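Worked example

This section walks through a single chain of length 484. The input is the sequence exactly as stored; nothing has been trimmed or padded.
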Amino acid sequence: MDEYDIYRSPLEGRYPGERMKKLFSPRTRASTWRQLWLWLAEGEKELGLPISDQAIEQMAKNLTMTDHDFEIAAVEEKKRRHDVMAHVHAFGQAAPEAAGIIHWGATSCYVTDNADLIFLRDGLDILLPSLAAAIQELSSFAWENKDLPCLGYTHGQPAQLTTVGKRACLWIQDLLMDLRNLERARSDLRFRGVKGTVGTQASFLQIFKGDHEKVEALDEIVTRKAGFDSTFTISSQTYSRKIDVDVGHALASFGATCQRIGGDIRHLATFKEIEEPFEKEQIGSSAMAYKRNPMRSERMCSLGRQLDNLALNPVHTYAAQWFERSLDDSAVRRSTLPEMFLTVDALLILLRNICSGLVVYPAVIQRRIDEELPFMATENLIMAMVAKGHSRQHAHERIRVLSHQAAEQVKMHGKDNDLIERVKKDDFFARIHVNLEQLLDPSSFVGRAPRQVEKFVGTDGEVQAALSKYRKVLASLERSEIDK
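Given that input, the structure is written out below as tokens.
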């Protein structure tokens, strides 16, 4: 059947990068199982079990699962209704000298769970530098726009002024929390190791004739070979599904951040203040040729929402486990774990592409400030009048009357806010007419925003401190591009 005649996941086909797709591919999974069987055999041989050099050599030469191996495994699984045993037999055919010792003392979760822990670790190792790059790119944007005043919004309504760079720092601060969450999830990972059917290591204790030290040594050898610093002392047949919950929460939290950032950019695009990158031949609408839809940010919000839902599966799966293990975790984890990582990878590709190409329209921002600033400046005008010797109450009343007149022109007649023109024509404010330009300078309304940005993303700020461990890899990363 042609590939276009069968369903393929849009997630895999459209959005994530090649490294993440390869990590969670069937070949990587099956080959990792073979690697785990080799490590187990090597450890058992090192500790005195009768495993021949030829068995080890044949296993080592056939670690990568071939297309022919997959065909054999498919036949075996149809016959045995057990995927791990199907792969045991397929590996045994590729390495006949090892056929009798593959999987010696192990249970299925030796390969399935240990492989999943390897994939969680390696997946996080792919994501973390990419997230660091997004933070670095957004920090550059914040620094470049730290002094550019813009309207701040509370309740969706214009509030006091902030700066474009300061608003970006709000996003960066949340992304730093995501970076810490993912780093913590990565550092918390331990190996399941060699634990047997219900986590008691009984089978290995029998193999080593009651020698507890050799059982522990085998656990340590395999854990070290897999590149982990430590193993869980306590496990059931599986590693605790709480691990999937913790990793899923960290990933979903990042997805929520992407939705937040994407939502802000979509609103700013509506105001025409800021736009995401828009390519020369990009089409915004099939009908309305003039449109420049924020499709990257919309996609980011969509995938972030999907990630929220995916992350519920590990929660429900963990809660539903019985005693030492129940198999109702298997089918849902096969799809959920890869899709969570593929989704985050796709989100990071989008986020980096957006952050490195944001377009700012200062003239539009200034026009929107001009529409609102006269009302925001009224307190400054009142204080300036008091400083010139006028009554605060008299100044307040006069400003109130003029403000209502200007508001009527805006709301009832659709005209521009002419409050300042009214102030200029009113002799009551004659003493401050020469000061109006200074009193209405937008930069005087942003408080410490520029300095906050400097402190936050500057050389000695917390952003650079958080990114310090990624310096080498950041220097080698290329600009993020999207294909669709």
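What to look for: The chain has a mean pLDDT of 93.
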